[in-house]
Amino acid sequence: MDLSFSPEDIAFRDEVRAFVAQNLSPVTRRKVEQGRALDKADVVDWQRALNRVGWATPSWPASAGGPGWSAVQRYIFMDELYAACAPEPLSFNVSMIGPVLIAYGSDEQKARFLQATANLDIWWAQGFSEPGAGSDLAALSATAVLDGDHYVVNGQKLWQGMAHRADWMFTLVRTDPKAAKKQGGISFLLVDLKSPGVTIRPIITIDGRHEVNEVFLDDVRVPVADRVGEENQGWTYAKYLLSNERTGIARIGMTRRILARVDDALVSVEAGLTEAERARHAGEAAVIEAELRALEITQLRVLAAQQAGQVDPRSSILKIKGVELRQAASELLLRVVGPVGYAFAYEGRDEAPSEAASNYFTLRAASIYGGASEVQKNIIASSVLGL
Amino acid sequence: MNFDLSEDQAMLKDTAERLFAQAPGDLWTRMAELGLLAAPFAEADGGLGLGPVETMVLAEAAGRAQVLTPYASSIVAAGTALRLAPVPPSGLIAGLAAGEVQFAWGHEELGMPGGQPRRTRARSSGESWIISGRKTNVVHVAGDARLVVTATADGGPMVLLVPLDAQGVSRRDYQLFDGTPASEISFYEVGVEAGSVLARGPDAAVLTERAREHLVAFRASEAVGLMQALLDATLEHLRTRRQFGEPLSSFQALRHKAAEMLVALEQARSMAMLAALSVEDPEAATRRKTIAQVRTVVGKACKLVGQAAVQLHGGIGVTEEHPVGRGFRQLTLIDLEMERG
What we know:
By secondary structure, chain A is an alpha+beta fold. Chain A contains twelve helices and eight strands. Chain B is globular.
């Protein structure tokens, strides 16, 4: 039993640290540090800077143009990004559609999309959820009917993060309504969002921000060549995508950043805290920090198992606990910053003096997306505990 | 980086689990025969020279079997004070490692926070020291034991040995709520020879802190074993107990509670590992912070898992004879110890 990194891993960490220090724009860094919304250019510029050295796609194998890193190297890389207040590589591209194309895409699709996806020449949106299909994703009802060498797609998709910035959307549609199981008749399509019949409407969430959208598909014609894998096998690819989405989902570094803001706020004059309040809040922060330390070890244990080639369904623990701590930290921050935190930055207005409220409201969604905490508990009960 | 046990550590785990699965009578003698009492001590002192990971393995096995042993007080706390003393008393360590000399850790005092100077006083008188004071919740005190006592001498801390049969020592025996035999030990003008002092001044402060840190690491791993035992029992109960015509495991509220138990247990397991890997860290400040975090996480987990195990067992969980009821009391005591430090 040994917690230390190898000399090679430490050299790698130093290399990543130096690169981020030299290449991350101070403007982007400040936004991430303060929890502010990023502009499209912030994300694109950073992704391309990473891609120039081959680091934009941490989880991709070398054969697909990725860096071919070990699980430990990926952990170190992400940890360094968080610590330096750098944005994550765009997850829709890097963690979601990329691995699906690598595993199941045709050679033509790989040639056409992979490099553009890594370089963010194409910004992807995720078209999974629908008004009637949230946690029960397989209940989706968008349809695709074959017409020559095209599918004609109709339906409504919901919660498309950043779809207003996106060029393409990967989506799940029903191609066989008569399939015996609802999971059986689903196909995985790539939709060019410039196609006629696509309408994107913004949804402003309780954080005052425009991040998610609803996407209407009315007789949208999608070439059969833009279907990933086999017809009616889309559920298999979707499950693969969702399992990738869950790795690294503890987002420990992000919670650390919120706790750093709590530390600053605890000693700020504006917060106007009494000694007793300060002591109570500092105690709460210490408890979150201790739990975060434990989660870091838990994550390393899951990584070590992955490194040894074992599949560890305990990654659901990372999601549940990671979200719980991020939510707790954001709530604590909101309580600590005091009246300065009541001002709000609505979409399209100037930034607020503190993003504490916005961050708190944003993070309420974290226990809903990516597999709600209740769904994760169901996974633990059946896959880990054998209930 | 790896979290696997070495081959020898895995063998130790097997040995300990088989031993603790047997009837509890004469457990200490059998632990001595298997060399378990010698584990953490230097080979020169008759020990096996094993480290905190081996101690963690033993603690977890003891917790899992829900056995009460003097190991934490005797080998871990008192033993740490002996082996890390500026001049370790080789003969006594060899006796402890062989199971021939009994030791107990006498630190806790009523009304004194764990990290504060002790009210028990030692004053010098010629060639000897005179001790007065009272220790509470000293556990597993054999009739012929020697106590490792923390005290205050000349305004500074001191750690010294007091034999239980010395003139002026009295004891009042009782039981803690987890079933552990405990004693209140009073010292009235007890004279001990100068050679009984293990450490004075800053050395004594360090020695006390180190002993208490090792105790936290041990109890954290014991808690992990206990929580695993309670979770296993709870899962078995959920699978087999039927109500409303269904096994309890079909009810989502109960499945979710069980999942929450696992999350807490795995967090505690991570911290018990971290404690074992940190407790010999030479940096005092790093160690101190880590141990404080271990206490926080493990204490919370003890409470969550213990309470949930009782709740999910229903009525049978609140009976004294049921292992889950007893396990809950054991976890509750560890929770309180973690909070107190």
